[in-house]
Structures are given as C-alpha cells and as structure tokens.
Design brief:
Layout lengths: L10 E7 L6 H17 L2 E6 L7 H10 L4 E6 L6 H11 L31 E4 L7 H14 L1
Parallel strand pairs: 1-2, 1-3, 3-4
Length: 149
Amino acid sequence: MDTNSSSKTKIGVLLVGHGSRLPYGKDVVTQIADMYREDEGLLVEVGFMNMSKPSIPEAINSLAQQGAEKIVVTPVFLAHGVHTTEDIPRILGLNNGHGNSQHSHGHSHSHEDENQVEIDFKGEIIYTEPLGADRRIAAIINDRVNDAL
C-alpha cells in the first residue's frame, strides 16, 4: 500500500470474512492478514460477520484502541452479494447498506450476534470492493492446476 509519509493519519485495515462453525475460513483470512501486516507494516485485524470471532465491531474497536484514525475495510469475498452490499455495510453503519436487514439466501444462519458489540470509533471508515476478478487470482488457479498435474 502506498501511503503518504507526511500524513499524520494512522491507518488501520480490517479484512472481513464470512465466519463459519469450522475453523478453515478463519484460519485463511487470519493468514492473509498476517501476510499483509508483515508486508505493509500497517495495523491489520480480521473480523467476521458471524459464527467466528472477533466480530466486525470487535475488530473495529481493536483498531481504534490501537490508535487507528481511519479504517479501510476490505471484504475477503470474491464477488458482491447480499453480505457485501447489505450486511457488512449495515454492520459498519454505512449508508450503502440499503437499510434492509432482512434477506433470504441459500444457507441458514443468524446475523443477530453481530450487533452485540457496539462500534466505538469516531474516525473515517472506507469500505472497499471485494477481491473480484483479478489476474493474480487466475495465477493462483494456474498454480493449483499445475500442482495437481
């Protein structure tokens, strides 16, 4: 990440995962966060929509306690869906959450536990696009295919 060294703003980065009863997704998002933190030297936390901890509000509060004045939130999802366009923005208190907390999708779980912790952060939250179609992801797929052959 290119940062302006004359800037006095302390940047925090939050990588958001879905959450699961199984540990694998949390492990992967945490490993990605560790790599990013090591490479960029920024404050980096992970937060999950549900089932896994820390929650998104807990992670935001952790970054705030570490002195972050601006937090960049990146969903570690490949594409947009209800979670990236409605649920996560709503949890973050952003206007683009469309105000619709009720939705239906093909797996059952509750989003009720995500609001147990209130976000205590007065700085700016910037919400990015999900990972999306990217040649770097295609290169990873190529590696997996070649490893399998």
